[in-house]
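Entry, Tuesday afternoon. Goal for today is a structural model of the target with flavin mononucleotide bound, before we commit to ordering more compound. Inputs were pasted exactly as handed over by J.K., no edits. I checked the ligand SMILES twice against the vendor sheet because last time a stereocentre got dropped in transcription.
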Amino acid sequence: MVNMELIGADILDLLDNKGAFFLTGDENKLNVMNIGWGMIGYLWSKPMFIAAIRPSRYTYSFLQEKPEFNVCFTKGALNEQLMIVGTKSGRNIDKRNIAGITYIPSKTNSTPVIKEADFTIECKVVYSQPLDPNTLPEEAKKSFYGGFNAEDVHTMFYAEITDMY
Ligand SMILES: Cc1cc2nc3c(=O)[nH]c(=O)nc-3n(C[C@H](O)[C@H](O)[C@H](O)COP(=O)(O)O)c2cc1C
C-alpha cells in the first residue's frame, strides 16, 4: 500500500518552485528532465501522478518505449543538477553522467531513481492523452502555446503510483 500521507505541502512546494527530476528509461538507456507541472491524487481507485510532457522532449520518446517513470525531489543539494536536466536535452548530452547524481535501481519498475534524492515517487503509466489544441483556454494558449510552441501541446501521462519514500 502506498502511503499518500507522505505527500506534504513541502513536496508540492518543491514541484512548484523548482521542479523535480523526471526519470525515464532503464539502466542501459536512461534520460532525465525537470518537471514543474504535475498532479497527485486518485483516479480509478488508484493513487495517481499525472505529468504534462511536451512531445518535443527527448523524454517523450522514452515514455513511448517504456510506459513508466520516477520522480525524484531535492530539497537543495541537487539544485545545480536539476537546472542542467531542465535546460539541456538528452539528445545533446548524456544525462547518465552528471556529477553528483548516482542512479540506483528503483523498487517497483525498471527505471532507476536518484540515490541522493530527498523524496521519490515511482510510477507506471496506465493512460495518456494529448491536450486538445482546439479547446485550450485562451489564456493558456497565449502564455504557453504561442509561436514556436503552438504545435507542442502537452500530453498528460496518467501513472499509478507504485511506491514512494
Ligand atoms: C523548472 C522547470 C520545469 C519544467 N517543467 C516541465 C514540464 O512540466 N513539462 C515539460 O514538458 N517540460 C518541462 N521543463 C522543460 C524540460 O525539463 C527541458 O526542456 C529538458 O531539457 C527536456 O529534456 P529532454 O529533451 O532530455 O527530455 C521544465 C524545465 C524547467 C527548468
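Helices lie at 9-17, 58-65, 79-87, 138-144.
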